[in-house]
Amino acid sequence: MKKTLQYLALAVVLAAGPLAGCNSKLDVEPVDYVLTEKALLTSADVEAALIGSYSLMSGNRVYGGYIQFIADLLGANGEIAFVGTAVQPREFIQKTTLVNNTFSAGTWTDSYQAINTTNNVLANLDKVVAVRKDRVEGEARFIRAALYFELVRLFGRDWSDGNPQTNLGVPLVFAPTVRIDAASQVSRNTVSEVYAQVLSDLTIAKAKLPASNGFFATKGAASAMLARVYLQQGRYAEARDAASDALAGNRYPLVPSFKDEFATTTNTSEDIFAIQITAQDGLNDLNTYYSSSQRGDIEVDTSFIKVYDANDERGKLFKDKTYTLKYEQQYGNIKVIRSAEMHLIRAECNARLETEEGATPLSDVNTVRNRAGAPALTTVNLTNVLAERRLELAFEGFRIHDAKRLKENVGSLPYNSPRLVLPIPQRERDVNPNLVQNPGYL
Amino acid sequence: MKCKLSTHLKLFSLLALWLFAAPIRAQTQSISGRVSASDGGPLPGATVLERGTTNGVSTNAEGAFSLSVQPNATLVISSVGYATQTVAVGNQTTINVTLAAEATALNEAVVVGYGTQTKTSLTGAVAQVSGREVQNAPVPSFEQAIQGKAAGVFIENSSGKLGQGIKVRVRGTSSVSGGNQPLYVVDGIPIISENLSGTDAATNPIADLNPNDIESMSILKDASAAAIYGSRASNGVVLITTKRGKAGDTRFTLGYQTGLSKPTNRKKFLNATEYVEYFREAGKNANLEAFTEGRLRRYSAGNDDYKTGAVNTDWQNEAFQRAPFEQYDLNVSGGNDKTRFFVSGLYSNQSGILIGNKFEKMATRINLDQKASDKLTLGVNLTLSRTRNNRISNDNAFSSPMQIVALAPITPTIDPRTNQISGALDTLTGDPNSNYPTYYNPVLSRVGASYIATVYRNLGNVFAQYEFIPGLTFRSELGLDLLNQEENQFAGRVTSRNNGPNRGDGFNRRLTVARFTTNNFFTYRKTFNENHTLEAVVGMAYEARQRKSNSVTGQQFPSDNYKTIFNSALITAGSSRETSNTLLSYFGRANYAFANKYLVSASLRIDGSSRFGVNKRYGYFPAASLGWVVTEESFLKDQQVLSFLKPRVSYGLTGNQEFDDFPARGLYSGDAGYAGVPGQRPFQLANPDLKWESTAQADIGLEFGFLDNRISGEVDVYQKKTRDLALNVNVPGTSGFVRQFRNLGKLENRGIEMALNTRNFVGDFTWSTSVNASINRNKVTNLDGQVIEGGLLNRAIEGQPLGAFYGREYAGVDPANGDALYYLNTTNADGSINRATTNKYDDAQRVLIGNPNPKWTGGVTNTFGYKGIDFSFSFQGVFGNDVYDGGGKYQSANATGGFDNLTRDQLNRWQKPGDITNVPRAVLFDTPRPGNNFGTGGAGESSRFLSDGSYVRLKTVTLGYNVPSALVKVVYLQSARLYLSAVNLLTFTNYKGWDPEVNADYLASDVNTGNISQGTDFYSAPQAKTYTFGVNISF
Q1: How many domains, chain A?
Q2: Which family does it belong to (chain B) (predicted)?
Q3: pLDDT given at position B38
Q4: Considering the domain boundaries, does residue A268 fall inside one?
């Protein structure tokens, strides 16, 4: 009996004794991931995070498709029909977006994911070697600005609609997120504050970016994005000058044949900024929804195709007179800014301001028309420029934003209808009560 | 002190050596005897065991045995199907025993964590299921065969696809974001049971086991039974014991089974004439008449047949196939005093009811026990298996066979323009059709695509057990579960409408999961002074799991004849991944019984896990229980009615750590390259305080037997309170993250379980009945205000059961204009709820509309026997749950979803003012009325598509015939049995869909919201109804 108890006591001691120090077996390190504290130590680390920002920006719910086709569907007025079975895109074209629409929620969350990554880059700029520091900063600011601009246009009222100083835009977040706490429940900044931030980021980016930078953001891209932002604000002189800056030195000549500009796997001369999609990386959701070889969910109405001149190459870039052929390449790049747009911005602004800075409106419009094989115009007025914009930039994510700034009705809805502004996603409001919903939504 | 595991193991070896060397002097005594059955014949293969030791033998063919035992030993003589007898040896040298045919299961050994106990002395809640319940069940995985057979264990198939993930819930769902499946332990070794699928639909590694190898299953339900498995015990533990050899003649058992499966139900859809009429009306109401006519013609293969109804295709038929089943199995067992073995092999080949679905299994096993000396026993359990699963797309894919029902009945199966399968080729381009038929035709995947998952599984352990002194043994087990899986997917050109114009898509993934386990523990059993019985277990375990995978995806194949990625011109993706975790544990348990009347048990497990945050490395999981065998009291000795009565009570803590391997760490991921340039991104926020989910469970049980245990059973009431939920908490997206893993929130499960077994007739004609029923009430008690959504309408809401359906409440149809109406359910100024209706979906407030969790579940099995004939049938029922038909918005929403064919109930749509119906006006694409900017066709997710999912199923029916032994002996056989069996023969339900037992696979396997996603049907295949014929012979 006594002996038995001794055995048992020994067994217990042996089993429990080493507990105090036997931790090492439990120190298992991840292999697929890197610990945050080891992720941003060197210049290369920070530069890799910058690439990560591009990758996130190229996501299908960001510039990989959603940003553009949500704008097209929201702005659609009979030119296109959504015939797919998916309910959520149809909500956009019917202007009946529900607060729980996961497409718009995805654009919101994924854009902020990219923004947080740029914030990490910007907070660690001191680690970047001097020769690349300006470029890295410029690129990060360009990405952040572009996404805030898209977010404020989709989720806030237009600049021209009411008072941007009081209208709510989207929350501005600048600090890298290290923890979630009460401070994470950010409030919406005003439309005006968001635009100010966008302009500030782009202005710095323009100053710091190099003229040539592969397919990454360049000085030209920052100028072009500035032109777009100013145009949306109706600041025509600044928009015109920024467009001229982008076009300066004919750095981005139009591709000779219109159709060759599209469905390319590399950037063309005309591309000021494009999202890179490769077979290994990225998803071109414009291809998914527009191309008849994919879902073919978005069909173009013949009435729209008929507007093109018979000789206009742009009117022939359709399959079966139903599907646009702009997105036929599954792994094709997504053109975010083409220089044709800059010609049209400059033409519009010159026409409005009755100036001829950079080029005459007639010359800019005809530059675009000539390339497409459309007969040259002899005179142009604002109406002609705006008509040209619709023909040239169709299905590239411009429609709703143009309709709003031009105060055009979209179907029976006035330009400032709350239905043309996306609701703040329900998932966001569920976790952040400080986010005020847009008018017209619960 | 810093130490390594090896040091630790060395210490154990040292101890072992020291104990080996210790002089142990004991005298032994030889006894021999014979065991006979109550009918007088010899009982071969009965176990004769010296109580409190592992010293024992089996009787030979004549029922004889001989054994050396300690002085004053007690023999325990047992045999399956007979009541165990205990005989004090005293100074006898010959002991002859007659075993009575088993009256009850009370003396049966119950496998518990790191040991066994008798049912009588058990103070925890353990559901036992005999291996007989799963033998020869025509299903891929054994859990499917015990559906409705164990109280407190809810088992649900996600659909009728084979080899898919199966939901098993022991006493409710206790985690929101972590795993909820029980821990599976085979012969002492925890095994790989996690979903390893490379797609959105889960697979089930448990299906690799051969059900015919299973001797018994113990499902540990309360803390007393389960807490010895510590941080993995909250979801219950399923202990599986495989068959072992017995001393005696070598016995061969050969089985063959063949059968056929069919779907349990079909849905009814519009025929061609109805379809055309319906869509013309829907087109007219949408002001799309010409467009509609064009589409009808297109879907009618471009001809006018649709106008006459000449083509009327029932596409549903095309989703199903003839589904044969066959199984061969052989096992051989036997041995002598020193060596015992069990060897088995099984091959089964089962076709699914859905086109292209098949599950094939080959499994072998060898279990070997060797008595090296009186003190030392060595053994090995080893199983090798291969399963091959011809998988089909997940429920949410156009290529999923069930989605075929969306095709128009006016579309011919064979396109008359090409004489090919509809959709195969475009007549103009030769490319696959992009707009004919309505959607991708899943039959094309049947002919042009394949997806084969092959698993090679090697599950084995070796063990040694040494008895130092009588009653004190040390057992060491070393187990390895090695799983190699290959998934090989190919989709040829003909599928390009589904996969993209890639001239073939290939995907190949290989995965190796290795799980190493060692258990080392002492067991001490001793009875002191007659009345004091002590059993104690103390030991340690270490487990390490590693998972490595790689995959490659290619496109552009020279032709569809080339299917390996070797032949692909464009590699579009490739990956290799690795992850691992470790668990270091110490455990102990002591059971004390006084005079077999008063029972006390206590246990403790300490688990250290690599998954926990650095601040919370070790978790402590204690449990205690008490029992009182009232019928052992003298005051109950003199009555005949109550034969057994034991109240018991237990309380303890268990944990759950089934989540990712590194949820506590702040991480960056390098998966953010861009156009060939490497990039990284923030991936996860750190949480160094992350720990296990903790469940405190209280259980009160009563076990009883009446009339010599002709009526026996048990009732349990329990409460499981889970806190520190490891929750994938939604965080503001503006942070750059959408979720964070945190210990936050509480939930609870309360329930009552009842199991009752009666032997209604004994004698030549036998009839026994077994009934079980379980009620579980799940409630999320605290989520700190978080709202977590899953499925299509499921939510985790405080105060409600997990996964409650939360959405807009459908109010029917406005008789004036056919608009769908919803209850506003807004709160009025006075706090009342506004029950007015609106036709504007967005204006209606979301409310609780249903609950996917059953109110109660149960089963009844009746078994009859008469001479050589046996007959049994089992009903299984699930009651009070709701099912949401996620496909309703397409199949049953009055043409708002497009040209999908519709269920016949849609014929009852509103057509003219005054019509009273629940189906709104047919309107194509839910086009808004002129002047409206919102659709009113009722397509939005709402209670419109929710219905009661209760059902009762005639789960199994078996009729067997045992050929009389006189007859079989003529052909030198020992026994022969023929049987007919049917699974899911009848289903009784009000559910309008295919089958109420459903949980759309792509939602259920979502890592973030899978637990919340419950009871959603999305073109999910019905269960299979399977008929089989089988024969078993032994010789």
Answers
A1: 1
A2: Belongs to the TonB-dependent receptor family.
A3: 59
A4: yes
Give the CATH number, domain containing residue A274: 1.25.40.390
- For residue B548, give every residue at least 6 positions away whose Cβ sits within 8 Å of its Cβ, in sequence order, or none: B511, B512, B576, B577, B578
> Given CB atoms, is A354 within the 8 Å cutoff of chain B?
no
B726 close to B177: Cβ distance less than 8 angstroms: yes
- Whether residue A170 is contained in a domain is answered as yes
- Does any CB of chain B come closer than 8 Å to the CB of residue A379? no
A207 and chain B in contact, CB less than 8 A: no
Give all domains of chain B, ordered by start, each with its CATH number: 28-102 (2.60.40.1120), 129-242 (2.170.130.10)
For residues B942 and B162, give the distance between their C-alpha atoms in angstroms, rounded to a whole number: 31
| pLDDT score of A19 | 46
Alpha carbon of residue B908 to chain centroid: 39
A23, part of any domain: no
CA distance to B14, B116, B375, B471, B781, per residue, from B464 (Å): 15, 17, 10, 16, 47
Cβ–Cβ below 8 Å for B928 and A96: yes
- Residue B942 DSSP one-character state: B
If DSSP codes are grouped into helix, strand and coil, which group holds residue B654?
strand
Tell me the C-alpha distance between B665 and A224, whole Å. Answer: 41
The single-letter code of the amino acid at A200 is S
Q: Cβ distance B974 to B754 under 8 Å?
A: no
Residues in B closer than 8 angstroms to A140, CB to CB, are none
Would you state the pLDDT for residue B100?
67
Euclidean distance between the first and final Cα of chain B, in Å? Answer: 60
- For B667, the token pair is 């991480």
Q: Quick one: tokens of A336?
A: 């975010």
- Domain of A342? 40-178+185-408
Residues 315-334 of A with CB under 8 A from B: 330
Distance CA B213, CA B940 (A): 49
> Which structure tokens are listed for A254?
């139009």
* Nearest one of B853, B903, B1015, B882 to B947, comparing CA atoms: B882
Task: Give the residue ranges of DSSP H helices in B326-465.
Answer: 443-448
Distance of CA B756 to the CA centre of its chain: 24
What's the ipTM?
0.93
**Which two tokens mark B718?**
């329990």
Note whether A33 contacts B3, CB cutoff 8 Å.
no
Instruction: Give the residue-averaged pLDDT of A395-406.
Output: 96
| Structure tokens, B473 | 């043994």
Distances (CA, A) of B476 to A15, B51, B378, B480, B523: 13, 21, 10, 14, 11
* Cross-chain CB nearest to B19 (options A7, A40, A430): A7
Annotate A206-274 with DSSP letters as a single string. Answer: HHHS-S-BTBS--HHHHHHHHHHHHHHHT-HHHHHHHHHHHHGGG-SPPPSSGGGGSS-SS--TTEEEE
Show Cβ contacts of residue B211 under 8 Å, excluding neighbours closer than 6 positions. Answer: B131, B134, B135, B136, B137, B141, B142, B145
Pick from B114, B238, B239, B227: nearest CA to B624: B227
Residues of A in contact with B680 (CB under 8 A): 34, 39, 45, 48-49, 51-52
Verify cis geometry, omega within 30 degrees of 0, for the bond prior to A256.
no
Q: A33-73 pLDDT, tens per residue?
A: 999 999 999 999 999 999 999 999 999 999 999 999 999 99
pLDDT means per 10 residues, chain B with 1035 residues, are: 46 44 54 72 75 74 77 79 75 78 62 90 91 88 90 92 91 91 95 90 92 94 94 95 90 94 95 96 94 95 93 96 95 92 96 95 96 93 96 92 96 93 82 86 94 96 94 95 96 88 91 96 91 94 96 94 94 94 96 93 96 92 96 87 94 94 94 95 94 96 92 96 90 94 93 95 90 96 84 92 95 95 95 94 92 96 91 96 95 93 96 96 91 86 96 95 84 88 95 94 86 94 95 90
